[in-house]
Amino acid sequence: MKKILFIAVLASFIWSCNTSSQKETGFTIDGTITGYQDSVIFLKKRDAGEWKNVDSAKVVDGKFHLSGKVDQPEIYYLLNEKIRFTLPVFVDNSKIMVSGKVDDLNNVKITGSKAQDAMKAYNDEVKPYNDKIEDLYKQYMAAQKDGNKELLEQIDSSYYAINDEKIAFTKNYIGTNNKSVAVPYILYRELSYSLGVEELDSLFKLIDTSLSESPYYKILDERIKTLYNVSIGKKAPDFTLNDTTGNPVPL
């Protein structure tokens, strides 16, 4: 019995050490982009609407290595202005691999990140809607060039119908995958600026609280509170401004 207990404690200790080690080590991104000439690639994130540099690396024979650490899974971007390459990567503290060809950057593969896998699961399912929207955009540009107003109106109508279908799909996806690490980001990116505050709040409340430390969960929480505070019928918050002489005046 003591031996079994000892083995159980030892196994728990080893697992704890491995988990701790991963958190302390952070993430690595090793990439191979065939045909990518020697250059510099940047790893950046969006912070308060600005680009923030996380890491950079020289690309040699199409290969590069980047590293860092995240407190929670977060969307970062691989960028290279020379080849107009911008690739979003849902980074977690793991060993991430990026592979592809410089002449086929739309099909670059990303493996090793569970957060990225979760995001890909959504992207794969929503792809038919996005493909239809992209096709309509091409039709719209052609019709606009030809000055075909009747066709432009038809395309507009088709776009709104497909977009409504995409929104309905995304709402359902959030409810049925509420423990997915990607869901707070999906709600933030896809719906937070198109829904009314009450509907946004109802979807937000579907997200499992185990994801409450996600930066996107926190952004959504703050946005919903702000929207409620400024919604019609709410009392305007008290604030003051200085007059021309510098004295504060309550408004």
SSE inventory with pairings:
Elements: H1 2-25, E1 27-34, E2 39-47, E3 50-59, E4 63-68, E5 74-80, E6 85-91, E7 95-101, E8 109-111, H2 114-146, H3 149-176, H4 183-190, H5 197-204, H6 215-230, E9 240-242, E10 248-250
Parallel strand pairs: 1-7
Antiparallel strand pairs: 1-4, 2-3, 2-5, 5-6, 7-8, 9-10
Helix pairs in contact: 2-3, 3-4, 4-6, 5-6
What does this structure look like?
- With 251 residues, the chain is an alpha+beta fold.
- It has two domains: 27-112, Carboxypeptidase-like, regulatory domain (Immunoglobulin-like), CATH 2.60.40.1120; 117-230, no CATH class.
- The protein has helices spanning 2-25, 114-146, 149-176, 183-190, 197-204, 215-230; strands at 27-34, 39-47, 50-59, 63-68, 74-80, 85-91, 95-101, 109-111, 240-242, 248-250.
- The strands form three sheets. The protein has a four-stranded mixed beta sheet. A four-stranded antiparallel beta sheet has the order 3-2-5-6. A two-stranded antiparallel sheet has the order 9-10.
- The termini are far apart.
- The model is unreliable at 1-23 (pLDDT under 50).
From the structure above, extract its key features:
251 residues; four-stranded mixed sheet; four-stranded antiparallel sheet; 2 domains
Given as residue ranges, the uncertain stretches (5+ residues, pLDDT < 50) are 1-23
Beta-strand proportion: 25-35%
The geometry reads as: globular
Helix proportion range: 40-55%
The Cα radius of gyration reads 24 Å
Tally of helical runs: 6
Number of strands: 10
Q: Largest sheet at a glance?
A: 4 strands, mixed
